[in-house]
Design goal:
The chain has one domain. Helix content is 78%, strand content 0%. It has two helices and no strands.
């Protein structure tokens, strides 16, 4: 799950950066709100995966390098 939550947190950061770029370029309000909501959704999924990984407390098979 480590790769999963890192992926979604990375997507949230990417969408947030693209939101600011799109805002400063002069994008339309609907596009700005869609990018912002996409960023928040990716952050929410990333937080859920991080929290679940923290509560499990063990190494999952997909995170084991010797598996």
């Amino acid at each position: 799950m480590k790769v999963n939550y890192r992926l979604f947190v990375g997507l949230a950061i990417f969408y947030a950066i693209m939101t600011f770029v799109y805002y400063y370029v002069g994008g339309e309000p609907l596009g700005i709100s869609c990018l912002l909501l996409s960023s928040l959704l990716a952050a929410m999924v990333g937080f859920y995966l991080w929290f679940t990984n923290k509560r499990i407390g063990t190494t999952l098979p997909e995170d084991n390098f010797e598996g």
